[in-house]
Design brief:
Blueprint lengths: L15 E7 L2 E2 L4 E2 L1 H8 L4 E8 L16 H10 L2 H4 L6 E8 L10 H10 L3 E5 L23 H12 L3 E4 L6 H10 L5 E3 L15 H16 L4 E5 L20 H19 L4 E3 L12 H11 L5 H16 L2
Parallel strand pairs: 1-4, 4-5, 5-6, 6-7, 7-8, 8-9, 9-10
Antiparallel strand pairs: 2-3
Helix pairs in contact: 2-4, 6-7, 7-8, 8-9
Amino acid sequence: MRPAKKIEEIIDPRLPICDPHHHLWSFLDRRYLLEELFEDIGGGHNIVQTVFVESESAKKQDTIQRLEPVGETKFTHDITDQRVSKRYGRTRVAAGIVGFADLRLGAEVAPIIEAHLAASDRFRGIRQICSWDANSDIIHSNSAPGLLLDTKFREGLTCLKRYNLTFETFLYHPQLKEFVDLVRAFPDITIILDHIGGPLGIGPYAGKRWEIFREWKNDMAALADCPNAFVKLGGLGMPICGFGWGERTTPPSSSELAEAIAPYYLYCIEKFGTERCMFESNFPVDKISYSYNTLWNAFKRICKGFSSKERADLFYNSAVKVYRL
């Protein structure tokens, strides 16, 4: 992964931030654990606490395959224990933990959820990536078309209410109508949309940014009518969004970045309100496009002129409320 470094003076360095979406992983060819995380978050922004979101990195080696994701929760809990992680910095890393369980198991997913809860008292929710597209140029998860409408999947989602857990997913913008249907069907569960619904900009979607933007706006407006829906503002640094920052020799400045991403994030804030929006880093995935410092500077530029209460919501309070930190 290309480290996109651009040195900038930190804007409003005292503003408290809860980063509600980052990963930790250790694969054979790449590593992103506490040391690497603190290299990114230690650049001057006031990152008070974070939320870890599943990445299928450290699965439990269990004879029951469906219990494997619990190992990632246990691994994350152990390496981010304050007695261990405080030597890196003051940030409370993984104050909340979001893990994976396959909701397609229906009611049988309950023991997996209970195992996650037993593995960490910081466990707060389930994420199951549902991204899927019919075009082979678009990378998608181990998902399937129509998953959000699947009866068994929804049966599994029902279990989250019993444990007071959130549900969140990453999907692509053509799937937003199905997502709205899902959110409406579960008004008593807090449901979070990651990366503003994944507006695509590659393959058959390349060169259609504003046409897609209009479609995306209509679907996001419908989602905003659901009071149990929350949105993470981030993720546009992923190559699938088509901005091409990761292909440049020089990464974007925070001013350039803010100009490009503002139409999306300001529209979400307009429709959902600051109480249901939260800025996210999506690191290290988005690191291919820009540095951590540049990204949060861009967020702060977007919020220039906002009230102190609105800024507190977007950078800290909304995440703390949703994840019960």
